[in-house]
């Protein structure tokens, strides 16, 4: 079966699902398997330390076939490599770009002449109206069930709200890990979903087995928000280590982040230290584990190949559709 929506028509895929770009987790192998399974996937440009590594990955993705793939770009001032990353994306004619945390105007202007789609992360209607005027191709509706930097509104509120303030297709991001959830988002008016956390527990993910098993063992109730990683609230699994250190910034970090002069540098330092902590936890078996994930790990029962995760999702969706029809 195939599922036809604005997203599948726009990208030429079988099912309206984007394997969400996940910092440190997403890689070429995962995206290629997603493409083979009838969906698409995106990788954060920041997963590559150098432009040479980034170009090598894009070349590998291009050689793997003509199915679409995307790249996530952080478009605020903290990403000093944005100009270089954007140019590389243009050079390889990346099929779609997902923009996060800033003004996407420059990205949209650079991509449009090359037929590259630009999807923008949004959490509320005002920003949706802005990126619509800038010429974005779709909205990624980041709701309060998303992994990483979550939004504030539930999808039941956010999706209709965005559709009332923009005529762009809306892709729901957050909380979906099974076919029932996919059906609910499409019923709400979304043209597809961006799903990340269940794919952490995939055979192709490059992270430790401990990280994958944590996604199997823990559930939605074990996800907590912390501002220790980037200075902005971010979702992590509430491991014993997280419970030990707490989820709030220290008084010194808090004071520095409120000082007008020092705030910029304090946030940069917090972000750098936080990303280093995530990297160590993702790739090293240590007690100090801070694993980023969202509530959709509730649906993870075992570590499986990407193709099986996608197959189960679509099979469950088909069953839900048949149940509603009957």
Features:
326 residues; TIM Barrel; 13 helices; two-stranded antiparallel sheet; eight-stranded parallel beta barrel; alpha/beta; 43% helix
CATH fourth-tier homologous superfamily of the largest domain: Aldolase class I
> Which percent bin holds the helix content?
40-55%
Reported by name, the CATH topology of the largest domain is TIM Barrel
What CATH architecture of the largest domain do you see? Answer: Alpha-Beta Barrel
Q: Largest sheet, order of strands side by side?
A: 1-2-3-4-5-6-7-8
Cα distance spanning the termini: 18 Å
Q: CATH first level of the largest domain: which class? A: Alpha Beta
Question: What are the segments in which pLDDT stays under 50 over at least 5 consecutive residues?
Answer: 249-257, 262-275, 281-287
Count of runs of 4 or more consecutive helical residues: 13
Beta-strand percentage? 5-15%
Task: Tell me, briefly, the overall form.
Answer: globular
Number of distinct beta strands: 10
Largest sheet: 8 strands, parallel, barrel
Quaternary structure state of the chains depicted = single chain
Question: In the residues, how many domains can be counted?
Answer: 2
Order of helices and strands: HEHEHEHEHEHEHEHEHEEHHHH
* Rg over C-alpha atoms, rounded to the nearest angstrom: 19 Å
Query: Residue-averaged pLDDT, rounded?
Result: 88
